[in-house]
Specification:
By secondary structure, the protein is of the alpha/beta class. The chain has two domains: 300 residues, no CATH class; 182 residues, no CATH class. The chain is 44% helix and 11% strand. The strands form four sheets. A seven-stranded mixed sheet has the order 2-8-7-3-6-4-5. A three-stranded antiparallel sheet has the order 10-12-11. A two-stranded parallel ribbon has the order 1-9. A hairpin with a 4-residue loop joins strand 11 and strand 12. Helix 13 packs antiparallel against helix 16. The C terminus is likely disordered.
Length: 494
């Protein structure tokens, strides 16, 4: 596939592949049967050690070559000019060793299509981004310059990353975005022979069920880009690394104990932007995403990195339905609940004892919406399997968290005190406070119990919102409750 693609041809509307609501940040992976468990156990003993030894040897070899190639160069030197001479000639060798490390782990890297030259496409746009194993794209593209967080350089692979002459991102720097875009533009439009810039425009990992919103940073230069897709066509998905799912070590273990796995990298035709797209990077990004989604056969959804942060915070705090927070938010918008006062009214009034467990039809009636497929999906997310019903306070707490996500968490907490008190007085017993604390304060039951005892200074056996806030204001570990933007702050004990 070495043809050219112009923005006027092959246009693909996201509506054409709009599917039912997906959650791209969840991945479930379990060994389902006895055969898989026995096979994995055997390969863990006889295959895993050998593979780990070989991979470590290859990585250390590549790292030593990178150290040699970087000797005498400062970080400023790497940002000032592209490598030349013998330093550049080491890149093919490092790439070969990198590919061999994947092969040693049982993963074959299959290349389809032709990588365009830097003159044809200064920027490579790669999606979907679903795993730390996607780093194989660096070796497959002859060590293109990656966009990398500066804090990622503080580990042992920092030398290998530096050898790509990366564009750094300081996520805690308020001017980082502008500086990063500026450097991408300079690299992409430079007359010097820089490596191609390689970007993962989604900005975070998904489960490959769709393509989420592309960040426009790599599209600001207005130059042609080459879309590159990554697939893992394996019987068992042991590579997907999302916010909700197996950790990196488990995925690495299960991948290395597979007899064989593969990664398919496909270079699509170069995409040449129209004049309108050059003026509008967001439009350019959307249109390239549509082309890549069509090639992959997946829908596009307007999920962003900020949605990931919201989900991560909700999960950390213990908010009910945290893993599906983005999906809940979208359904609420579709049902008009984000604009109505139904949820706010219910949360402010509290939920009486007789109405705390609801069916889908009862939930629809309480929220004042039709019991259609969207409402049933909402009900399914919060469904308690043992009863087949939804615990209404849990849903309303999630709704308040989403509605007030940019307000101090203390405001959400004020509703929680009402929601989890069946008498609706906002006066919680120790057991009720534990419910609240484990759902929106990131406390375990033991810590919640101890917190209640300390906050209940008069030993009344109950605690009001005002009493707890008075206590929390004096405790550093609860300072996160009063941050002005909960979507961008983390608890100090995280």
């Amino acid at each position: 596939m070495n043809g050219k693609l112009h923005s006027g041809s092959g246009a693909f509307s996201s509506d054409d592949m709009r599917a039912e609501i997906l959650n791209p940040f969840v991945h479930k992976l379990e060994l389902d049967n006895t055969y898989d468990k026995i096979k994995t156990a055997i390969f863990t003993v006889i295959l895993l050690p050998f593979r780990v030894i070989v991979i470590c040897y290859l990585i250390v070899t590549a790292w030593l070559l990178a150290c040699i190639g970087l000797h005498g160069l400062s970080e400023e030197d790497l940002r000032r000019a592209p490598m030349t001479g013998w330093r550049r000639s080491l890149k093919p060798l490092i790439c070969f060793i990198g590919k061999m490390s994947y092969l040693a782990g049982g993963m074959a890297i299959i290349i389809r299509g032709r990588q365009a030259s830097r003159k044809e496409a200064p920027i490579l746009v790669v999606a979907p981004h679903s795993s730390f194993l996607d780093s194989c794209i660096v070796y497959a593209t002859r060590m293109s310059s990656v966009i990398v967080r500066k804090e990622s350089m503080d580990n042992y692979v920092g030398k290998l990353i530096n050898y790509t002459q990366p564009v750094y991102v300081w996520r805690d720097d308020p001017n980082s975005r502008q500086n990063t875009i500026k450097e991408i533009i300079e690299r992409a439009t430079s007359k010097e022979d820089w490596p191609q810039v390689l970007i993962f425009p989604e900005g975070t990992c998904t489960n490959r069920s769709c393509l989420i919103t592309f960040k426009p940073g790599g599209f600001y230069p207005g130059v042609p880009v080459q879309p590159v897709t990554i697939r893992y066509p394996n019987a068992r998905d042991t590579v997907t690394w999302t916010w909700e799912g197996p950790g990196a070590l488990k995925l690495l273990w299960l991948t290395l104990t597979q007899v064989h796995s593969s990664c398919e990298i496909e270079f699509l035709p170069v995409y040449y932007p129209s004049e309108e797209e050059k003026r509008d990077p967001k439009l350019y990004a959307r249109n390239v995403r549509d082309v890549m989604a069509k090639a992959l056969g997946v829908p596009v959804l307007d999920y962003t990195y900020d949605d990931c942060r919201l989900i991560a915070r909700a999960k950390h705090l213990g908010i009910p339905g945290a893993a599906a927070a983005r999906e809940v938010s979208e359904i609420r918008t579709q049902l008009g609940l984000d604009r109505s006062q139904a949820e706010l009214r219910l949360a402010a009034e509290g939920v009486p004892e007789r109405c705390r467990w609801v069916s889908a039809e009862e939930l629809a009636a309480r929220l004042g919406v039709e019991p259609d497929a969207r409402l049933h999906r909402l009900h399914q997310i919060f469904l308690q399997r043992s009863s087949g019903l939804v615990y209404l306070p849990d849903y309303l707490l999630c709704a308040m968290f989403l509605s007030l996500q940019h307000a101090p968490l203390s405001e959400v907490l004020s509703y929680a005190f009402k929601l989890y008190d069946p008498s609706r007085c906002g006066r919680l017993t120790p057991a009720q406070f534990e419910e609240v604390a484990t759902r929106c304060l990131a406390l375990c039951q033991e810590d919640a119990h101890n917190t209640f005892r300390q906050a209940d200074t008069d030993d009344k056996g109950h605690l009001t919102y005002d009493e707890f806030i008075s206590y929390a204001q004096k405790r550093a570990e609860f300072s996160f409750l009063f941050a002005s933007d909960t979507a961008h702050h983390k608890p100090k004990n995280q």
